[in-house]
Amino acid sequence: MDTCVFCRIVRGELPASVIHEDEHTLAFMNIMAGNPGHALVIVKPHVENIYTLDDALAAAVFRTTTRVAKAVRAAAGCEGVSLFQANEVAGGQTVFHFHIHVLPRLPGDALPGVWPAVAPSRDALDAMAARLRAAL
What we know:
It is built from three helices and five strands. It is of the alpha+beta class.
């Protein structure tokens, strides 16, 4: 895509503080960091979201994400790492090129933790599991 910011970074048209690059992925520092060490891992080809990510790119991006998460944990002085990946506007996606945030976490940091939990009934869980199996 000509106007996609991540495609432009992959092509070298925009600067990035690169952490790792291989045939399929690129990892770089997020310019809108939640905490020091906040990195992004992207697939190089323009893939809008997880729904269009093929198995080979999925494997490559998670392999790179694992390596980057270990590096962030070792180098950023954090006590944990959160991974965040969003799809579509309703899911919180703002850049429509598949990417995973690697967020270093510290106790008491200002980043949101987990969502408010709602415990569905076993019947509701079983019914949704059946629907998901059918969708697979």
